[in-house]
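Re: folding output
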Amino acid sequence: MISIPLTLDDIVILFATIALSLIASKIIYRLIVISAKKITTKTKTILDDKIIDAIENPIHFALIIAGIHIGIEYTHFSGLPIKSTIFEIAVILLVAYTLSKLLDAMVAWYNEEVVVKSKNKMEEVISTAQRIGQIVIIVLAGTMILRSLGIEVTPIIAALGIGGLAIALAFQDTLSNFFAGVYITVDRPIKVGDYIELENGQKGYVVSIGWRSTQIRTLSNNLVIVPNSKMAQAMIVNYYAPTKDMSVVIPCSVAYDSDLEKVEKITIATARSIQKKVKGAVPNFDPFIRYNTFGDNGVQFSIILRVAEFTDQYLVVHEFVKALHAAYKKAGIEIPFPQRTVHFVDKKVSGR
């Protein structure tokens, strides 16, 4: 065991240099950081503001580490065999911390400035990239610290490779959901806030797209949890893509003795009124009807309206059916109902 004689002067010098480094960090903060902030507030971008905020704490820590290092060099503490190792680890941690803060600053700038201006909702993609970046920084910092401690990294990596294979087999479903979540996030067939319908008939708003599952909130305010692997393979109807507004087709029929020109005129007039006054309808859309077939009980046709989004159709159709029923009743137009004519045969008359 190495014995290092320490004096009172050594302790005084060490604490003095630490105190001076703290004072220096405050002075440099005042001279550089605050001055830089005044300059960055005048620029059009917020990127420089985010960077200054990110490096503020690392600058304090760097000056403190430097002060401690200088203090040790001027005392008998410099003879400690692990001095250089401790200092090297401190620098590695400081660099990793700084990179992490800069990554967060870049993501914050991108979400607040680039995404908003381009109107391109990329929060999920950026969040995924941010998490991956943080993991890379941690892994690299951990590897460098192990090397500083004299621990050979190659056998550990090889062991982790074999262990990783075993873990991958054991957590196959979990990893499948993870990579499916990455695919959904990057490819963006759906995004948070979209109203979708799955192939099994489940409908609802996308609440979140996580690492393992996607959450869908139904209109009855229940959550449907779908594993990402299932979601990536499912046939999905996205009612918000490419746009939220959509057509609503309402089937109807009138009696065969109806004046079809009159029917069309009254139907379109009623639909136009609904499009302009009912909340959720697209006011500038011109509705229309199309006769399509001769049914069992009357002439069948469809009325096409347009709503701002999927859930608006319920109120619009509700009001339209009421208004059209009243309009047809006033005009004497009959809406037929299913009928069946049954013929009875008298066996005696038929000779049986």
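--- second protein (sequence, then structure) ---
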Amino acid sequence: MKSFALLVINVIGIQKGKIIDENEIARVIHHSIKEAEEEAGLKINSAYLTIPGKYVTIVQNSISKEAKDKYAGISAKDVTSSIMQAKDIDIPEDKQIIDVVENQFILENGKIVSDPIGNLSGSFTLKAQVILADKDYMRQIASVFRKANLDIDGLVPVTLAQRSIILDSNELNDNVMLLDIGAGNTDIGVFEGPNFVYTNTIPLGGDSITNDISLVLNISEEEADRLKKQYGLALKSFIDNDNEILLTTCKDENGKKVIRSSQLIEIIEARIEEIFSLVNKDITMQGIKSRINNVILTGQGITNINKSDVAGKIILNIPVKIATGRLISVVRPEYRTAYSLVKYIASRQFVKTVGSNIDSDSEENFFQTVFERIKEFFYS
């Protein structure tokens, strides 16, 4: 029986996706794990992690494989061997393979299947994405988790993990860009049907809007966040009533000041425009914008701001909609990333359980072995 620990940790030592204070992150992780262990009655020795898109490179690869015994059908060993062959690419010195995502198997008769095992076919072609991560980031992550006395079972790009719960059935087969605008970052994931094409991270998010409101209006961040949620609107042109707002923590007029709601929305609009403009610049430079049919918007940093999808459509010139995936309304927003990671790991057909090391003790020196473990990520 498999056990999963679902943890959502807000860490002070991370800013805009960068690791600033390893000791602080390790302390928070260690404390959260201890609480989870006491609650669940389990010993947790390892974890799967999501990794921001800016530390990820995707390499498309295709492998043709002869079945070892065409009369017995394609075997699990044939499939595993093809996946291992897919990893045989030229890897830049500053990168490391963290995963191979197999998304399509094509039999010799041209039929496309998700699982070729047992098919009577003399050969098959595997189309896959080889996922690379920056070594420097991995070293930092390894150091943090070593300090927290935890092993790493694997790293998964944020948008790849989220795809199955954010996109609906039609979108899973379309050319879409998933935009996850969180608190500190905006993660980009571009998918062409089942193919994971591109990912990156823009270091701006919902907290950037809150900070702008706080600085421009000279009020506390707490009040700025409350006003953002109360009056959240992405476009000034959609204002119905330009109401007066009393600022109670303003530092320049005896603690109180009155503004118009249009002034607040102008601040929100400017930052949202910048976020979408940076995304637009990124996908244009990558040469993939023309291939994107729809943009799916998610993330706590943006979806509570009305007309954010309209603002995105204006700037990107691509249809934009708020995510309506089947599980969106079921999973609380703060748990979606953790839930999507568990769902992603559990759904992988050809993975082996290299961990989760729950209820087992590991005496391996983590820092010395993490790269070897990730080299063999999931696959025997």
